[in-house]
Each structure stands twice: as structure tokens, then as C-alpha cells.
UniProtKB/TrEMBL annotation:
GO terms for molecular function: ATP binding; nucleoside diphosphate kinase activity. The gene is NDK1. InterPro entries: NDK-like_dom, NDK-like_dom_sf, Nucleoside_diP_kinase, Nucleoside_diP_kinase_AS. It comes from the Eukaryota. ATP binds at residues 11, 59, 87, 93, 104, 114. It is an enzyme of class 2 (transferase). This is Nucleoside diphosphate kinase. It comes from Monascus purpureus. NCBIfam families: PRK00668.1.
Amino acid sequence: MSSEQTFIAIKPDGVQRGLVGPIISRFEQRGFKLAALKLVTPSKEHLEQHYQDLREKPFFPGLVSYMLSGPIVAMVWEGREVVKTGRTILGATNPLASAPGTIRGDYAIDVGRNVCHGSDSVENAKKEIALWFKPEEVISYKQSQFDWIYEKP
Ligand code: GDP
Ligand code: MG
């Protein structure tokens, strides 16, 4: 299946540091297809919902205020195994443990300023896409490079 989708976000530090272009480029150059994109300033409630699994963690209040500190680029990327591969492109949660060549491994140092988010499972990707996007904001189209990227549909 080439139609798997993941939710990728460029966090406020990534936007403020001028990393929108470089982060998008890594997904584009890999061959994934952009299905949705917007610059947003979500509410505290929205961000608490997004990170609900982490609400008991000591860093949760700091995480929510970090995510509230500026605009976020919200995206949906599509392609074969994009959820798992998207996480590989982002790198480990803690940038100091991220390999060079990953986004976090190239652009970040602190776990609390790790510039990007990516869904961790297909199931969570579906939930996150539904939280951040209206159905009509996720665009379906044929990627012109499709047959050059995939051997089989
Ligand atoms: P991710 O899926 O790789 O983003 O990692 P998690 O889902 O475990 O955590 C969500 C986000 O919370 C991370 O991307 C970090 O921004 C933040 N976070 C995770 N662990 C820590 C921590 O130990 N300290 C701080 N300050 N932030 C953390
Ligand atoms: Mg996570």
C-alpha cells in the first residue's frame, strides 16, 4: 500500500528557526507526497488532546506551553510505510541520541526543543490527522513522480 498517511508537525522552534523549508524538503526528496499543510496556532485544549497520552508526565505542562509558544506547521504526508519512515527521518525523541542525517540529529539538542513531531503508529496517525485537519483539507491527487518512486502501485 502506498496510501498510508502520517501527521508531521514543525513545532514553534522549528518555525522560528527557519527550518520549515529544510524539514519539508526531506519528506519531498525522499519521495513522499504532501497531502495537507497549514500554519496554525492551536488552543491549549487542542494541544492537551494531541498529547493526552503524556498528561501524567512531569514535563507535560512545559510541553504544552512550548507548543503554545508560536505557530506550528501541520502536515499530512503520504506514501508507503510513511509512519515508520517518517519517524526515522525525524530521529530519536532526544536529539542528543538522534543520528546525524536525521532532522533532530542535524538541527536540535534539547528534548524539550526537538523541532518536529511525527505520529508513532498508523492508528495514532489517523487520530492525529482527524484532530488537526478537516477531511476536506486532506487532498487526494496523483503524484506525478509516482511511477518513478514506486516499482509497483
Ligand atoms: P516523540 O513521539 O518522539 O515526539 O516523543 P514522545 O511522544 O515521547 O514525547 C512527545 C514530546 O514531548 C517530545 O517530542 C518532546 O518534545 C517532549 N518530551 C518527551 N520527553 C521529554 C522529557 O523527558 N523532557 C521534556 N522536557 N520534554 C520531553
Ligand atoms: Mg509521540
